[in-house]
Amino acid sequence: MEETCKPCTAEEREEILEEIWTTLELDRITPQPGSRIGLAKLGNGERLSSLIQGGDIRTEADKAVLTEQGYRKAKEVVRNHRLSERLLHDVLNLQSEEMERSACRYEHMLDTEAADSICILLGHPRTCPHGKCIPPGECCDAGETSLRPLVVPLTELDSGEDATVAYVGTRDNGRLSYLTSLGVVTGRPVQLVQKRPSFIVKVDENSVAFDESIAREIFVRPALRRRSRERGGHRWRLRWGGGR
Ligand SMILES: [Zn+2]
Ligand SMILES: [Zn+2]
What we know:
Layout: H1 10-26, E1 36-38, H2 49-53, E2 57-60, E3 63-66, H3 68-91, H4 96-109, H5 112-121, H6 138-142, E4 152-153, E5 162-168, H7 173-181, E6 189-194, E7 199-203, E8 206-210, H8 212-215, E9 218-222, H9 223-232
Antiparallel strand pairs: 1-3, 2-3, 4-9, 5-6, 5-9, 6-7, 7-8
Helix pairs in contact: 1-3, 3-4, 3-5
């Protein structure tokens, strides 16, 4: 019986497109439709055939050329990967190996809306934790005038400003239970009363005080931004499985 080649899955094709993007960057070429890369750099030419058939690249002599469609897909997967790294690193405090492993999976699962929601949440970051450029999305152009992230440390609020606790960014369990006992828990509305000489926050009807090092670990969603986010209708949505 004739051997048939197993067709590349959508994820495998995305991996190759990502590799094309990063190889171009290493060559100091800004990826764009029509960018060319030596086929020899992409290893075994056979694995490119499904990209060629799918219209993501075409070949010219010894070069692979990114089509408009291939460029868009590569940009999306790279954006997803680097935004995921930022989320895992900055918000979830994961170290590099765990961060990388998860980012490699998330890059295939996020759709544009979810990626934009992460981008907005993090204040449209320009670079990943490795310093590589995050390709901007439509949200970044729209957000050009107001770059304040949706979630900020308590220290960034103005006195009198209302917010909701998003999460407490500490791995210190003692501190976490102390804050929990004060009512500083995810979803709880708070109001910053004053910043000096210490931070005073109104939680329910109680006023609680702590120093700046603790305030910096309490991340909140300022009230005004939360409303505009709800109006914008951004919602988390992950796409499970390969279906691209
Ligand atoms: Zn990175
Ligand atoms: Zn953005």
